[in-house]
Write a structure and sequence with these properties.
By secondary structure, this protein is mostly helical. It contains six helices and two strands; from the N terminus they run αααβαβαα. The chain is elongated and about 110 Å long.
């Protein structure tokens, strides 16, 4: 009788566990779980995106509101995409931008090599050429940073020239 009762009760319990795991795999319940854990830990995470492209609209919105930007990236590919283009074109001008990418040096068994080997099984973007991807992204960001600095300098210089030209001398006359 106990075995029969255990068999009858275990079936609904197993079904409930499978149902809960299935719901957690869905996007909205997963967001709720992430938001709850984020609230408890204070990390500030509010969304989990299954695909990078679905996050680009939120990235662009957040970048437009940011006073300072700090990015920690494994490759930096997202930094060269459309979502970040207002940042590099000078359309946005936060107080500071800091980007941390892994060192693409030639050291054997680097973090990039280990990361590439681990992730290539389920992400085809992580290939043995991961070093060259990071180098390409670093070169792009270096070029954009140089260009943007000259853009910001020229704008500041124009503003100074305009203020200087439009100003009138208001010095008091010297007293005898």
């Amino acid at each position: 009788m106990t075995a029969f009762l255990f068999g009858v009760l275990s079936s609904p319990a197993a079904s409930a566990i499978v149902l809960v795991l299935g719901l957690l795999r869905g996007s909205r319940p997963l967001w709720w779980l992430v938001a709850a854990c984020s609230w408890c830990t204070g990390t500030g995470l509010s969304h989990v995106y299954r695909h990078q492209s679905s996050a680009e609209q939120d990235i662009a919105r957040d970048l437009s509101r940011a006073r300072w930007i700090k990015v920690l990236a494994g490759r930096g590919n997202v930094l060269t995409r459309e979502a970040c283009s207002p940042l590099w074109s000078g359309e946005l001008s936060p107080e500071s931008v800091q980007v941390l990418l892994p060192d693409p040096g030639t050291r054997d068994d680097s973090w990039l090599d280990r990361r590439s080997r681990n992730v290539c099984r389920f992400d085809p973007g992580f290939t043995p050429e991961l070093r060259s991807q990071v180098r390409t992204n670093m070169n792009y960001l270096t070029h954009v940073a140089r260009t943007q600095r000259k853009l910001l300098y020229s704008i500041a210089l124009q503003q100074f020239d305009a203020a200087w030209t439009d100003s009138s001398p208001t010095l008091p006359a010297p007293q005898p």
